[in-house]
Amino acid sequence: MSDKELTPGRHLIYMEWYSRDVGGLFMKMNRHLFAAKSPYQRIDIFESDFYGRVFSLDGITMTTERDEFMYHEMLVHVPMFMHPNPKKVLVIGGGDGGSVREVLKHPTVEKVVMCEIDELVVKAAKEYLHYTANKLDDPRVELVFEDGSKFVKQFKNEFDVIIIDSTDPTAGQGGHLFTLEFYKACSEALKEDGVFCAQTEGIFYDYEWGATAYRRIKANFPIAKMYLGFMPTYPGGMWSYTFASKAGLDPVKDFNPEKVRNFKEPLRYYNEEVHVAAFALPTFVRKLIED
Amino acid sequence: MSDKELTPGRHLIYMEWYSRDVGGLFMKMNRHLFAAKSPYQRIDIFESDFYGRVFSLDGITMTTERDEFMYHEMLVHVPMFMHPNPKKVLVIGGGDGGSVREVLKHPTVEKVVMCEIDELVVKAAKEYLHYTANKLDDPRVELVFEDGSKFVKQFKNEFDVIIIDSTDPTAGQGGHLFTLEFYKACSEALKEDGVFCAQTEGIFYDYEWGATAYRRIKANFPIAKMYLGFMPTYPGGMWSYTFASKAGLDPVKDFNPEKVRNFKEPLRYYNEEVHVAAFALPTFVRKLIED
């Protein structure tokens, strides 16, 4: 693992081009901590004063330690609080461990299977990302290094909650986690009262993918609803997620805010008001995903 | 007015450093349409395929034609729909005309006074920004080119709605629009049932200003509430606004969604659900502005 320190007083500029090549975010880094090429993708970890450590795959930002809580809390707690009694959870992707960390905050959880295609991502995260640390060593966690789209097919009526924490469909290894067939397999792997949630991309730059993913999920569940959250270091800062329920649970009408108010674990973004508010879509987003 | 066309096939990268010098947004431009130095600031207008025309002051992005509607609709319609019968409106700043355009959609409005310190901003906007066009020539609009913090002091009990559409307190000429004294003068210039709204900065990078502005507004009104909206080309994409009411109107409890549902003018971001949802603050934002 390389560990190059830059000349003190000089900085490395990390630039991420957003989709369509129209622009992007740049961040000032102090050090390039890790660089490697796995069989699947290029992995980099940088360090900076403001963002903390920044983890990227093929040059696309996956997480920064400064704002990863916004993404992980919104992806995980919306489905987790919608399920009456989540015991067995499947996370597909999420090799950095942020989603598993949030799942484990729920005391009903007995087992979390995390299926990440790239073992090197997990190794790098455990060594370099402070928020990953030993979270993936929890005895309730089972790590599987396989293609999630194939892995999920072996299960029928197995999980209470399935969470898709994928990379972008246009980059790296994420494309197979955005197909109609994959979402169907997820639905089948869920128990009858199971709930599902996927990150469904930004809605400002690469907005077609959000609409496509939402429609494909909706085609496989009796109810699917898109919701939004702020995510400053993702393209446009405007991120979408899609919740779905096999039993037809409505994430707003059937939501019990008491459960969140009584939750003992610390949360920094998600709360009972944010849960409901996230489903209120701006008019242009409503139109984008209209059938 | 300069009008430089770049070599076809080559592009200009517009880079905005966010506060704290930690990074920023870059956008690919095709042409640099306008550059001038007024007595107050440097004004630039660029053109690009994705963002449309981009207007900046002292190198800080003020608007892009692609997403200005998100900012202007959230800044203007929250206070406008909270007032029972808004007839006379004061906009301070907002020389690009976007806020006035939104105010004029409300059929009760008889007069909008726009007080912009820099006449050259208005001239450039009218010539180069498609969304400004002839909106500021509406007979209901009165343009005043003065320092808004001085201008507002001459009024007592005069306006139904006051909207602060300022530049950043740390850049250009905006600092005087963030003082305790200025917010006090705004309160005095409002009628007894008047409502107030100000843009109160991003909450991810330059978060101290948001909290400071909110507290200073709150010190001058019986009720003040911060709300958030997506704004992809502003730092972090996570923008804050603060609503206040002289008569103690609560922007959620006293909000009438029917008025929005029956509104005839087209809106692209704001709707009756977004109005309420915007006041649901993520936990870290609640803590940031806690007294």
Please tell me about this protein's structure.
2 copies of one chain form a homodimer. Chain A has 291 residues and is an alpha/beta fold. In chain A, strands 10-9-8-11-12-14-13 form a 7-stranded mixed β-sheet. In chain A, strands 1-4-5-6-7 form a 5-stranded antiparallel β-sheet, with helices on one face. The longest helix of chain A has 15 residues, at 68-82. The model of chain A has no long low-confidence stretch (mean pLDDT 94). The first copy, chain A, contains 9 helices and 14 strands. The first copy, chain A, has 2 domains: 4-63, Spermidine Synthase, Chain: A, domain 2 (Roll), CATH 2.30.140; 68-289, Vaccinia Virus protein VP39 (Rossmann fold), CATH 3.40.50. Helices cover 26% and strands 31% of the residues of chain A. The N and C termini of chain A lie far apart (48 Å). Chain A has helices at 68-82, 98-103, 119-128, 148-151, 180-189, 207-218, 257-261, 272-277, 283-289, and strands spanning 4-5, 12-17, 23-29, 31-37, 42-48, 52-57, 60-64, 88-93, 111-115, 141-144, 159-165, 190-202, 223-230, 238-245. The interface between A and B is large, with 44 and 44 residues. β3 (23-29) of chain A pairs antiparallel with β3 of chain B, so a sheet runs across the interface.
